[in-house]
Amino acid sequence: MFVLAHLSDPHLGPLPAPHPFELLSKRGLGFINWLRKRRAIHRPNVLAALVADLKGRAPDHIAVTGDLVNLSLTNEFAPARAWLERLGNPDDVSLVPGNHDAYVRAAVGLALRDWGDYMRGDTGENFPFVRRRGPLALIGLSTSLPTLPLAATGRLHGDQLARLGEMLQQLDREGAFRVIMIHHPPVAGANYFRRLTDAAALRDVLQKYGAELVLHGHHHEASLAWLPGPQSRIPTVGVPSASGAPGHHDDPAGYNLYEIDGAPGSWRCTMVERGWRGDGLSELSRQPLLG
Ligand SMILES: [Fe+2]
Ligand SMILES: [Fe+2]
Fold it and tell me: Which residues on adjacent β-strands are paired with residue 137?
């Protein structure tokens, strides 16, 4: 059995002091929002407890679906790199970036520069990247682009959609258990200002070529949706923010484990949901997704 862990949206704090010039942009509004609301929601002690709980389960691999940082301040990227290194080495942790990791145009490229070896495929490629681990093929997509103030949309930029179709076909021929990692949920009906703008095109590719599992973040809520696939429906799962303190609007911190077993055509996948209840983490649910 292969065990994959999935966490998302750690929104690492504390926020370093911004340079004044860094606030002359969308970051200025984001900074006010951080001081007023978000720094109380995203708590380092909650995240530390979640990571300790996750490591205690000794997963074979960890998937992280973005929003490591908050305003993409220049000084947020190195501490996020240190956090990644404490989580695991680049062979054991796969990352895709979120909208907060490319918050403004000036920050585009910083995530790839500082976290690149967690976002690189086995042959060195970026988005989409493919990493083979046990029976899994982890496919990383980037929807991380700067947006206007108050918007948190994403888009599969470049030729990712076209290449994704080819990859899914090839990996299906190889009999891999295909896991797609994406920050923005590809489901229909998302909030207009927070949506993945080319979600319908991605759903078309998934319906045509299939995948065994889609993992996303962004909504800071535990969710399970089913997208149409060529033969069977595709489980599409979101997790809360990994640092979410209880008592706020979003779900408190949580992460999922996927216990994957079987073979092409007869995969079994059980999702184990672990989340914050009371003053710590515990198992909230266990349910078969496949098989
Ligand atoms: Fe987020
Ligand atoms: Fe996000």
Answer: 132, 178
Distance from the alpha carbon of residue 291 to the mean position of ligand 1, in angstroms = 31
68 with 98: CB under 8 angstroms?
yes
Which ligand is nearest to the Cα of residue 98, counting in written order? 2
**What is the SS3 assignment for 79?**
helix
Cα 260 to averaged position of ligand 1 atoms, centre (Å): 27
Residue 59 structure tokens = 């997963």
CA–chain centroid gap for 95, Å, is: 7
Report CA(173)–ligand 1 centroid distance (Å).
35
Helix (H, G, I), strand (E, B) or coil at 218: coil
Q: Give residue-wise pLDDT tens across range 136-189.
A: 999 999 999 999 888 999 999 999 999 999 999 999 999 999 999 999 999 999
Main-chain dihedrals φ then ψ at residue 40, nearest 5 degrees = -80, -20
How many other β-carbons are positioned within 10 Å of the β-carbon of residue 116?
15
**CA 56 and chain centroid, separation:** 21
